[in-house]
UniProtKB/TrEMBL annotation:
Record's miscellaneous remark: In eukaryotes there are cytoplasmic, mitochondrial and chloroplastic isozymes.
Enzyme class: transferase
Protein's name according to its UniProt entry: Aspartate aminotransferase
Lineage: Eukaryota, Sar, Stramenopiles, Ochrophyta, Bolidophyceae
Cited Gene3D superfamilies: Aspartate Aminotransferase, domain 1 (3.90.1150.10), Type I PLP-dependent aspartate aminotransferase-like (Major domain) (3.40.640.10)
Originating organism: Triparma strigata
Amino acid sequence: MFSLPPTPEDPVFALNRLFNADPSPTKISCGIGAYRDNSGNPTVLSCVKKAKDLIGSSTQNEYLPISGDAEFLSLSRELCFGSDPSSNVSSIQSLSGTGGLYLSLKLLSQIGCKKVYASNPTWGNHKSLSLNAGLEYSTYTYLDLTNLSSPSIDITNFLSDLSSMPINSAVILQACGHNPTGVDPTSEQWDMIVEKCRERKLYVIMDNAYQGFASGSPESDSLSIRKFLSSGLDFLVCCSYAKNFGLYGQRVGAVHVVSADSKNVVDAMKQIARATYSNPPKHGSDIVKTVLGSEELKKDWVREVGEMSERIREMRSKIREKLEETTGGSWKHVTDQIGMFSYTGLSKEQVMKCREESVYMLESGRVSVAGVNEGNLERICDVIGRAVG
Ligand code: PMP
């Protein structure tokens, strides 16, 4: 017979459950990181609709190879690196970003890496994935929290934490649109980070879950990855097409391995994939491949991801304006931050006060700005205003 203690729920999904159970007609969820349009509805990008029409309903449903769709992987490399640098880069399709991180961390644990570090704070699943892969988990300093109205990277402590990591440790770096803080390193800071990773011989995993969402330009958002590429270091990139293509449930992603030994690394990852889920799903990669492989649809996509990112920026400005009006304080950090998320600076107690009024955000005070719209902005700001007032 089974005899198990209860398993703690993932905080993001637990929040969603609380939200769903709330009978209030005016409840608002600022929890889950999924894009909503200005009426609060999920969107299907028009380039995705067109791609689905082109794919049609009679496409074969055969297995993909364990490594996935080669054409999709080549287009994914091109998006990530600017061109397909095929000679020392090999790739494997993954179950979105999470699945790519799993393959990467499991591989590192198999080759003798003992410990992995992610930023403090970071996306909650980094820790669970690392422990699940059999690695020890710890964090490095990321944000200077002394002045929340002007958030910045605490680069001194960030670099000194990288310096004190044992050689052969792994470090997870978010390529852009940092979740949950919305604060990314500057170009100069990335140069210093790359140098430290080289010095400490760290295994680098670039978590690329928001390409296009941070600045509105997929190309600008790959700056950090291209810096690692031109440094000549070995590294891994885990790409997700959940957010930037709105393909959350399709589980489409890729891991790119940059190394002279990349083919052997991918072969080892294929073994892990084979013993875990055998081969990746096909429909999502068919969609991304159709969009990125067509000049016209790719243009549509670049425009649409830019529009989603721009709508979020507009919401940031309006939130700031409204909160400054109601609280009299500075909310500059809301417009300084980029990407889907804002680290509001609300305490846990203030977050709970918001929940009493049916406005839901994570205990850390993280708000998914992607869920804010003209219709709910006023109430969100009123409730936050009362909570901090
Ligand atoms: N990395 C980060 C930083 C994320 O925020 C997310 C999604 N919330 C992911 C990876 C993975 O998402 P998915 O598995 O849906 O691609």
